[in-house]
Write a structure and sequence with these properties.
Layout lengths: L1 H38 L9 H5 L7 H13 L1 H4 L3 E5 L6 H14 L4 E5 H10 L7 H9 L3 E5 L11 H16 L4 E5 L3 H7 L2 H10 E5 L8
Parallel strand pairs: 1-4, 1-5, 2-3, 3-4
The structure holds adenosine-5'-triphosphate (ATP) and magnesium ion.
The site of magnesium ion has 4 residues, from helix 5.
Amino acid sequence: MVKQTLRLIKARQSAADEQFERDMGNATNIAIERRLSCLIAPQYADFDFATFQNLDLSGNQMGMSKQMQSYASDIELSGYHSVLLSGQPGRGKTGLAFCTLREIIISGKRAEYVLWRDLIAQVQSTYSTDEDSQAIIEKYASAEFLFLDDLGLMTKANVSDDYLDRTEYLIERRLLAKLPTMITSNLDINGLWSQFSERLAGRINDNYARLIVTGKDLRK
Ligand SMILES: Nc1ncnc2c1ncn2[C@@H]1O[C@H](COP(=O)(O)OP(=O)(O)OP(=O)(O)O)[C@@H](O)[C@H]1O
Ligand SMILES: [Mg+2]
């Protein structure tokens, strides 16, 4: 009788534990799904490495896809801490970077995405309100992983020194904190040197893997 009761208690306990594990798993999945839909731009939402590799690729697009896939699956093991993906328009930089971001979010890292132009616009909007511009930079400076899209698309004439300083500060802060960053840009290191500064280009040159995506324009 006692044995039977004990068995019943044990069975109930293990059913409760299993339910708890399932609930936790579901909660994590919901949190990840929400994060993905918040961060991945809608036009890239259905893309992954498989859909990229099924495109009519040329140049080094397939090789770049494989390299980004290995970076996404284990940043530390890939040997790259941070990545600058450069190349001409339509080569697949943003698409590859979103596939990478997706994997990193799924792995549970607290990641952020921002289009560089939007970051500048967010900072600019604080000039006419009470909002703290530093808080905006802080959010991206402290994220466990950051995807900064389309760095340097404006001409120097359009970007005040303040924005350039803030961009430098953001990149510098992340390097100091050893937080990985993935940047896409039409500019290579020389272009960043002339549009930003020797300091910013030097930091990226010394600390980022610099990958240049070649091949045809995937939009054509
Ligand atoms: N993972 C993917 N799966 C399927 N199609 C993709 C994927 N990534 C990119 N593409 C296709 O390739 C096109 C160009 O890709 P993408 O926007 O990444 O280019 P880009 O190099 O970032 O260009 P730009 O320099 O203009 O920002 C996309 O509009 C999309 O049609
Ligand atoms: Mg792009």
